[in-house]
């Protein structure tokens, strides 16, 4: 396993992290979830990402139970706050009240004394950014969290937060968690440049585009019966990828991977990790074997000529905009 600093902070995270969105505490049984977490840890993954909203806290409980047997200092635990956790008017968002209360609730579910990285899951248009940063700074002072970050914030929102933090002498944000993969690259235009300038690292999610970049979906063919697309017909995100233009380009990427003797998923992960500003790519897994397969991507050296081949293919679908 290889490790990178998260932004300009001293915190080191594994190049691949294990996430729990749509899996742990929901679709994947508890013992299978724990097996994936244990395998990830054994392979050197030290970065584990979850959120309070994932199955209303169930994912945090599973993750906390699985990591309990390891020394607390040996892993980096990340969770998030923003989405609704109740029906009350203050049960969502980034107000001081919601952040403080949800941090305490997450600590209890995770069974730990502190959270390494506490992230604002989305931007809250109804709460002043200063109030949000103030609450996060107080949590750091109290030792309940060590670092703070954001997820899916725009370049303008990140810039505003950076300036306010400097003006108020709040501790700086160290990370942003955006969707980023070969097919979804919106952060390259504005988000990545401002984050690189301010020392904010990217911990990207959906690096395999919810399975599209495994090559299992073929143009002109029905989706595999065992796939996520087949079992979650309401998932508009996956559905937006399933058009022949995109899948034809994905097939070309798969051919490049085959010529290298690797799986497309491994090539896609290696590609993401070559992009500037990326500290870690968060993978999902329902079986330990998937973790093992993804970790092999770290041994893949992608040459400049291969990157050129990939870029030619990606240029064909540069105007593709998936739902998100």
Question: What can you see in these coordinates?
Answer:
By secondary structure, this protein is of the alpha/beta class. The protein has one domain: TIM Barrel, CATH 3.20.20.100. The protein is built from twelve helices and ten strands. The protein has helices at 30-42, 58-67, 96-110, 129-141, 155-168, 191-198, 228-231, 236-241, 244-260, 264-274, 288-295, 304-315; strands spanning 3-5, 12-14, 16-19, 47-49, 76-81, 115-120, 145-151, 175-177, 201-205, 278-283. The strands form two sheets. Strands 3-4-5-6-7-8-9-10 form an eight-stranded parallel barrel, surrounded by five helices. Strands 1-2 form a two-stranded antiparallel ribbon. The longest helix has 17 residues, at 244-260. The protein is globular, with a radius of gyration of 19 Å.
Explain briefly what this protein structure is.
The chain is of the alpha/beta class.
List keywords for this structure.
TIM Barrel; alpha/beta; 14% strand; 324 residues
Specify Rg, calculated over alpha carbons.
Answer: 19 Å
Bin the helical content. Answer: 40-55%
Low-confidence stretches: none
- What name does the CATH topology carry? TIM Barrel
Largest beta sheet: strand ordering: 3-4-5-6-7-8-9-10
Shape: globular
What count of structural domains? 1
The second-level CATH architecture is Alpha-Beta Barrel
- Beta-strand residue fraction: 5-15%
Judged by helices, strands and strand pairing, the structural class is: alpha/beta
Overall residue-averaged pLDDT value: 94
- From the N-terminal CA to the C-terminal CA, the straight-line distance is 31 Å
CATH class equals Alpha Beta
What's the CATH H-level homologous superfamily?
A: NADP-dependent oxidoreductase domain
Number of helical regions: 12
What is the helix/strand order? EEEHEHEHEHEHEHEHHHHEHH
């Amino acid at each position: 396993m290889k490790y990178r600093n998260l932004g300009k902070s001293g915190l080191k995270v594994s190049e691949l992290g294990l996430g729990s969105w749509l899996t742990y505490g929901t679709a994947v049984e508890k013992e299978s979830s724990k097996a994936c977490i244990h395998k990830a840890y054994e392979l050197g993954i030290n970065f584990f990402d979850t959120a309070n909203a994932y199955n209303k806290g169930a994912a945090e409980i599973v993750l906390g139970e699985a990591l309990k047997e390891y020394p607390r200092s040996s892993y980096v635990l990340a969770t998030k706050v923003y989405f609704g956790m109740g029906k009350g008017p203050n049960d969502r968002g980034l107000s001081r009240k919601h952040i403080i209360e949800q941090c305490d609730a997450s600590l209890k579910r995770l069974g730990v004394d502190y959270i390494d990285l506490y992230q604002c899951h989305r931007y809250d248009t109804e709460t002043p950014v200063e109030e949000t940063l103030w609450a996060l700074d107080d949590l750091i002072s109290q030792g309940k969290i060590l670092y703070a970050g954001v997820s899916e914030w725009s370049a303008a929102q990140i810039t505003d937060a950076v300036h306010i933090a400097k003006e108020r002498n709040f501790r700086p944000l160290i990370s942003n968690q955006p969707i980023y993969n070969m097919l979804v690259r919106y952060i390259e235009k504005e988000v990545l440049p401002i984050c690189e300038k301010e020392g904010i690292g990217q911990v990207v999610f959906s690096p395999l585009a919810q399975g599209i970049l495994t090559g299992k979906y073929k143009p002109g063919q029905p989706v595999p019966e065992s796939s996520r697309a087949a079992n979650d017909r309401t998932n508009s995100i996956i559905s937006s990828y399933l058009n022949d233009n995109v899948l034809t380009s994905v097939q070309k990427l798969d051919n490049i991977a085959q010529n290298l003797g690797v799986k497309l998923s491994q090539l896609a992960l290696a590609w993401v990790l070559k992009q500037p500003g990326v500290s870690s790519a968060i993978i999902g897994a329902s079986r330990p074997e998937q973790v093992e397969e993804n970790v092999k991507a770290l041994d893949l050296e992608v040459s400049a000529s291969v990157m050129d081949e990939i870029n030619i293919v990606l240029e064909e679908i540069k105007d593709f905009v998936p739902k998100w």
